[in-house]
Every structure is written in C-alpha cells, then in structure tokens.
Specification:
Blueprint lengths: L1 E3 L2 E3 L4 H8 L5 E2 L2 E2 L4 E2 L10 E2 L18 E7 L7 H9 L3 H5 L2 E3 L6 E15 L8 E12 L2 E2 L5 E8 L4 E8 L3 E13 L2 E10 L5 H22 L17 H8 L18
Parallel strand pairs: 3-6
Antiparallel strand pairs: 1-2, 4-5, 7-15, 8-9, 9-10, 10-11, 10-12, 12-13, 13-14, 14-15
Helix pairs in contact: 2-5
Length: about 270
Amino acid sequence: VRECYGMVLFFYDHEEAERAKRGEAPRAVPAQDMNGKSKNKSKAGREWEAFTPPYEPPRVRGVSDGGYTYRGAHDARPVMMHMQEFAENAADIAHFPAVHRDMTIPWTNIPLPGLTIDHTADWKEGTEEEGAHISHFMDHAQPQFLNKAIPGTDADADITFVGPGGLVFFTIELPTLGEVVMFQTHTPVSLMELKTEFRYFADPRVPDVLAHYVVGNWISQWANDLDIWENKILANRPLLVKGDGPMMRLRRWYRQFYAPGSADKSIRFEHA
C-alpha cells in the first residue's frame, strides 16, 4: 500500500499470492507519503519480512517541492476493464479524431456546437535515466471553431505512465500561465475492475476556474472511452494499418510487468 500525492495505491505481487497459499506471513511494502517510509506489521503483531519495491514513485516538479497548489479531486465510478487497456489507449493514435474530436462542456458529455479539438499524439518509452518502467504519451491539442484553429488556445500535455498504469500523471502546459498537473490512479479491485481517482495541482498563476476547466475537459474525454474499453476483447494479433500507432511496441514494453513466464503466453482477458 502506498500513499502518493493524496492517493492510496495498492500493489499486487504474484509471489505474495503464492506465499498466502502456503500460509506464510506477507512481506511488508514500505508505505510512502513522498516524505519517508514506515514499517508495517501484520494484524497479529508479527513484523513482516521486508520487501523492496522495484521502483519508487517519481518526484514531480512543482508538486513534490510545494511550488504548485492543490486544486481538487474527482473519484470516478468503477471501470470494468483490464489495466493494460488504459496503457494501450495511449498507443492507439488513430482513435483520437473519431472519439476525442468534439469539444464538450467540461465534466459532461454535452458537445459545444462548432468547437472541436485537433490532436497530434505519440507514445514512446522512457529514457534510460528515467528507467524501463516509464513511458510517455504526448498530445498537442489545438481547439478549433468551424475547423479553424483558435489562436492562443493550444496546449501540450505529457502523460507519464509509472509502471503498468496504476499511477499516471499529466503535465499540461498552458501558454504564458504555467502548468496543471493531474494524477490519475487505477487500483485493481479484480482482474476486470479498476477504482479510478484523480487529483490535480496547478501553478499559482493558473486561475482556479481554468484549472478546473482543463481537468474537467480531460475527464469528459476520458469518459468517452469508457463504452469502448468496457466492451472490448483483446486481439493478440490485431489487424493494424498505417497510422494506427505503435501498438505492438507498447505491448513489448508492457510485458515486463507480468509475472515471469506469463509474458511468453497469450494474454487473454475479455468482458463477460
């Protein structure tokens, strides 16, 4: 269990499942509030065997150092999908014009007549310095009215995946004003159910109303994906065409998060 930027993240380890089956005491995962670690004990009072996580949540500029201010939170409904689906969404570049072109009233699915968003998106692995567990989805969003760009309204977003998608943070740069940073977390309740939460911060120069607008717009676009995510099955060999995005490259990167041996097998998950 890890406390991170106001959210509690739960980490599942396949070795722990096997230890539980054998009746052994679990190992302790250090609780982290970004300022230190704590020692955990079992309910019976036994001290747990120490366990070192393979990587730490990154310190995010402006948030970890207190430069940005906390602006709000949103706890979404349970999402019935596999966590890998959210990661694959980042590499599915071709769906953006079809699913995310219409601009809506923030926090709703009500379209704004004549207003659209032109997306230029890409996905890439993290740098060697960041670590193999990091990847990035980049999006340049240009609002348009009647298919003509609205000057001064564009924004660049860098969405950082920390691990398989349990922790994702968005750095959204607003010209002349600064950044909005939003954290999105997915806690697996079961194989096909995720508890999804959002927390967001912003540069002091960004007005509250604008920070809420930016985050509300993202959550509206995120909600547009839900019907798709919750009604898909995994195609191990998807029929891809030019412009679909680096789906297979992302899957190769994602395989590192599966238990040893399982990554070489067909990954099968689908909705009942």
